[in-house]
Write a structure and sequence with these properties.
With 215 residues, the chain is mostly helical. Helices cover 68% and strands 0% of the residues.
Length: 215
C-alpha cells in the first residue's frame, strides 16, 4: 500500500507541482530574462514611436513653411522635403503606428508570460516573428528615404556653408558622404542585432521544454 497522499490542487504549492515532463513548473532564468527584455523594449518602443510620429508631423509643417526668411539678411531656412516620393511621409507615419502596435503586443505578451500563461508565450512568439518582418521593411525603407533625402540635405548644407566667412580646410561634401555611410552601417548592424534577438525569442518560445513550464 502506498503512503503517498494525493496532491491538493488548491494548495499554495500546487502551481509549482512537477509537470508531466518532470520540470518544477518554474521558468528558467534565461526565459525570464527574455520576457523582461521584451517588456522593456516594448515600453521603449511605444514612446519611441510616439516621438517619431511627432517629429515627422512637426518636420513636415516646418518644411512647408521653410520659404520664410530665417533672418533679416534675406537668407532662406533649409527646406528639406520629407515627402521624398509620393506617399513617403504617410508610409513613415504608418510604419510608426505599426511599430507602436507591435510594441504594445510586446508589453502585453511580456506581462502575460511573466504570469506563466501559455497564451502569453504564444503571443511573444508570433510578435517576435512580426518584428523580424517589420525590422526588415523598416530598414529597407529607411535606406531608400535616407538616400533620397541626402542629396537635398547635402546641397543645402554646402550652400549655407559657402555663404559663411569661415570655410573648412577639408572637403565637407566628402565628409558628409563618409558620415552617411557610417550612419547607415551602424543602423544596419543594429537592425541585424535586433533581428537576431527576435529570432532567438521566436525559437526559444517554441521549445517544448520551455512551453511545459507555462499553463
Amino acid at each position: 500500500m502506498s503512503n503517498t497522499s494525493p496532491v491538493n490542487p488548491f494548495s499554495p504549492t500546487a502551481a509549482y507541482a512537477p509537470t508531466v515532463d518532470g520540470s518544477d513548473g518554474q521558468m528558467s532564468g534565461f526565459t525570464k530574462a527574455i520576457l523582461i527584455i521584451f517588456l522593456v523594449l516594448g515600453i521603449l518602443g511605444i514612446f519611441g514611436s510616439l516621438i517619431a510620429v511627432g517629429q515627422l508631423i512637426i518636420g513636415s509643417a516646418v518644411s512647408a513653411n521653410a520659404a520664410v526668411p530665417a533672418d533679416g539678411d534675406g537668407a532662406q531656412a533649409p527646406n528639406i522635403n520629407l515627402n521624398v516620393f509620393p506617399g513617403a511621409l504617410a508610409i513613415q507615419i504608418a510604419m510608426q503606428f505599426v511599430g507602436m502596435i507591435l510594441s504594445a503586443l510586446m508589453v502585453i505578451s511580456g506581462v502575460m508570460g511573466l504570469k506563466h500563461r501559455i497564451s502569453g508565450l504564444n503571443l511573444i512568439r508570433w510578435t517576435a516573428a512580426g518584428l523580424i518582418v517589420y525590422k526588415v521593411v523598416e530598414q529597407v525603407l529607411g535606406v531608400i528615404i535616407t538616400f533620397s533625402m541626402f542629396d537635398q540635405i547635402k546641397t543645402q548644407a554646402l550652400e549655407q556653408m559657402n555663404k559663411g566667412p569661415n570655410q573648412p580646410d577639408f572637403d565637407m561634401g566628402q565628409f558628409m558622404d563618409i558620415m552617411l555611410y557610417v550612419g547607415l552601417a551602424f543602423g544596419i548592424l543594429w537592425t541585424i542585432g535586433m533581428i537576431v534577438l527576435y529570432l532567438v525569442v521566436f525559437l526559444h518560445a517554441g521549445k517544448q521544454a520551455v512551453r511545459a513550464r507555462f499553463h
